[in-house]
Amino acid sequence: MKHNKHPQHQSPNPSSALWPTSAAISISSEMAFIPAPDEVARRAYFTFENQGSVSGHEVQHWLDAEAELIAERNMTRTHEFHRLA
């Protein structure tokens, strides 16, 4: 007799409760924009170079770069044209 690896009360797939619903995805994607790490790194490096390549401010350059990219994205989303379907 062949044994079943997954008893009837257990599924081999993760529970659907662990996955967000489409409504949650759309809400969270509108509320939280996270720039790509390579974009942030590029912007932070340019700031580092423009400020004389002084070490010790890497974290501040990174945070400033993230904030600038988020602000630029928010400026391009005026009038909420992206929501029209």
Give your account of this protein's structure.
This protein is mainly alpha-helical. The chain contains three helices and no strands. The longest helix is centred in the last third of the chain and has 19 residues. The radius of gyration is 22 Å and the shape is elongated. The relative contact order is 0.10. About 13% of the residues have low confidence.
Major β-sheet, in short? Answer: none
- What's the alpha carbon Rg, rounded to whole Å? 22 Å
Q: Report how far the terminal alpha carbons are from each other.
A: 56 Å
Q: How large is the count of helical segments?
A: 3
Indicate the low-confidence ranges by residue numbers: 19-29
- Structural class by SSE content: mainly alpha
- Helix and strand run: HHH
The percent of residues in helical segments reads 40-55%
Name its key features.
85 residues; mainly alpha; 3 helices; 0% strand
Break the fold down into its secondary structure elements and pairings.
Elements: H1 22-31, H2 37-50, H3 58-76
Task: Give a quick rundown of the structure.
This protein has helices spanning 22-31, 37-50, 58-76. It has 85 residues and is mostly helical.
